[in-house]
Each structure stands twice: as C-alpha cells, then as structure tokens.
Amino acid sequence: MESITKLMENDRFAAFVGIELLEVKPGHAVAKMDISEKHLNGVDIIQGGAIFTLADFAFAAAANACGEITVAINANISYYKASGGRSLLAEAKEAAGSARIVNYKVEVFNEHRESIAQVNITGYRKKKSLDQ
C-alpha cells in the first residue's frame, strides 16, 4: 500500500485542484474534493472537468492499488445534476477485469450523497510493478 500512497501523493494536478484520497484498497477507492471558486465555470456551477478529474483520480487509486501500473484507455462520463455544494466525493469500484483490461464504475456524489455524475472507465494493466 505504500507504493499506491506515494503514487497518488505525487499526482501534482490532483494536489493543485485539492483532491484528497480518503480510502484505497485494490479495486476500490474514495476521494474527496472541497469546492471553491476555482472549480466553478462561467455559469457558477462546478466545471465538468473538475468532476471528471476527481473521478479519474479515484479510478487511478483503485486500479493501481493492485500494485501494477494501470492507465485509463477509455472513459465515458454522464452528468446527472449540477451541484452547487461544498464538496464532492468519488467512489471507484472495479466492475470487471482480466489480466490486462479492467472496467471501473465511478460514482460522484455531493455532500448530501446525491448522485452528480457517473464515469465508466476502461483501464489497461501494463504488467509493470509500481515498485519498479
């Protein structure tokens, strides 16, 4: 688990936008982002890219927690509700996987546990250890 913690702490963009990893284990992760002015778009709602970044970070933590470098090769996001809340939470869960290809479902919620978005991500396991 030390390798995944170090990997996620080294994610400079996630740190820049204020993402915090709350929970991680192989195939599952939860991440949180407190919302500030910098996360809002021109119509004063949370920018879609900020929501996607949070979901992508949760996926990366869950998928790489197995100890092998796993990268996203496809992602599809559906936005359900504009959130004007104070924070967002993303929960990534492995839906299916093989030796090389994994599929994840990432749910994004506001602080009231209302569903904001869902991201389906396909990842590719590079067969390279995080420790290398």
From TrEMBL:
Keyword Cell cycle assigned: no
Keyword Hydrolase on entry: yes
A Gene Ontology molecular function term of the record: acyl-CoA hydrolase activity
Alphabetical UniProt keywords: Hydrolase
Coiled coil: none
Family matches, as Pfam families: 4HBT
Domain Thioesterase per the UniProt entry, residue ranges: 48-115
Record-given protein name: Thioesterase domain-containing protein
